[in-house]
Design a protein that fits this description.
- The structure is a single chain.
- This protein is an all-alpha fold and about 90 residues long.
- The protein has one domain.
- About 80% of the residues lie in helices and about 0% in strands.
- The longest helix has about 45 residues.
Length: about 90
Amino acid sequence: MIDLRRMTKKFIMNEGRQQVNWQALVQSIDEALSSIRSGSLRDSRRIELAKHNLKEIRRHLRKANERIETLEEQLRVLEEVNREKKGK
């Protein structure tokens, strides 16, 4: 039988999942795009558009990461308050 509680806890706590360094992935893609030498103006514009989109992705990921850190801190505070209430 499937243990939904354990499954949910694993999902929430990110257990059993490899940490992906999104910054390294974005940098790798950026380097790959920079190394491409295009022969036509059309291809050059496509590469520039891809670089622009990558910058937007980087910006959104940075904001999402900041939000995650804030939410994790709030969760820790709530867990501490909950532990204190149970201890009384």
